[in-house]
Amino acid sequence: MEETQPLERKRNVSLDKLFELVTFGNRDPNVMSSIASRLTRLDRRLTPNDRTAIEDAAGGRPLSSIVGGIVAALDPDAAPAQHRLEEAAQPIAANPKLRNLIIAVKKSYEQIIDTVSHDQLLEAGPAGAVQERALRMVRTFEQFLNQHKDEIEVLQILYSKPYAVGLSLKQVKALAGMIEKPMDGSPRATPDQLWQAYGRLDAAHVRGSRTEVAADLVNLVRFALHQRGELMPRRAEAHERFTAWLEQQQRFNPEQLRWLEAIRDHIAASLAVEPDDFDLAPFITWGGLGKAQEVFGERFLPLLAELNEVLAA
């Protein structure tokens, strides 16, 4: 999201106060512009876990979309403006759960030592100090996993069987929240910081510099548990495994390949694919479950089971 518009007009007013003003009917363009500016900055910092939580609280609407609505309502070339500002304010003004969550997430980020970015925080200082911070962060994380392996369901699964079958994305997101905001007083760390720390300590075996989807946390945990010799994003891993699997299969026609690639991408992001998921994009735009069954015939369900196993293994 670009920040040329909106402009910060109320720098000395806190975000929770701005939310309060909007809740009580204030639609002053300066207030709305300041809210949009603050939310734009927050959106850039969101972890995958927090981004999903905010989107869920907003009824499935991304934070960037809410900001876009405010920015459009502030456009001086579009008129009349008042009813557009009223409409743009509603996702925030009428949703206390969303407001409270945004404030909580914002405050949690402000507690991260200082205001530098996660990357700068890990990389700041002499090389020796950076290496030491990375090592300390990794050791703390691995101690956390060991200490809580009997309490956290997702860790129980990963300790007992080193593959992702049986895990849900909801469980993984819950684990991400525990790591980012530990209840036992342990030092905070985001999955991205941990990924960078492992990259600093073992660059030859770490691909990428951060998580791309929430499910990447599974790969991060498995690498920390020494179940995997290489740390890589799930999307890249799924692409490699899918390509190898495809080479062993009979030929698929172009339409079937399009569906298979979408299934691959869904598994990479969500850990698994189920028939109910075909009510989601992009599947639903192509005809959903019924169309998928038509395209693959009686092979459809066996293919789903096989891809779930191959791509989650």
Mean pLDDT: 84
Count of domains: 3
The gross shape turns out to be: globular
Q: Strand pairing plus helix content: what structural class?
A: mainly alpha
Reported for the largest beta sheet, the result is: none
Taking the alpha carbons of the first and last residues, their distance comes to 36 Å
Q: Enumerate the spans where pLDDT stays under 50 for 5 or more consecutive residues.
A: 1-6, 111-121
Element-by-element helix/strand order: HHHHHHHHHHHHHHHH
Rg over alpha carbons:
22 Å
Share of β-strand residues: under 5%
Number of helices: 16
Structural commentary:
With 313 residues, the protein is mainly α. Helices cover 62% and strands 0% of the residues. The chain has three domains: 15-110, no CATH class; 118-232, no CATH class; 236-312, no CATH class. It has helices spanning 15-23, 29-45, 48-57, 63-73, 82-93, 96-110, 118-123, 127-147, 153-160, 169-180, 191-201, 216-224, 234-247, 254-270, 288-296, 300-312. Helix 4 packs antiparallel against helix 5 (82-93). The longest helix has 21 residues, at 127-147. Residues 1-6 and 111-121 have low confidence and may be disordered.
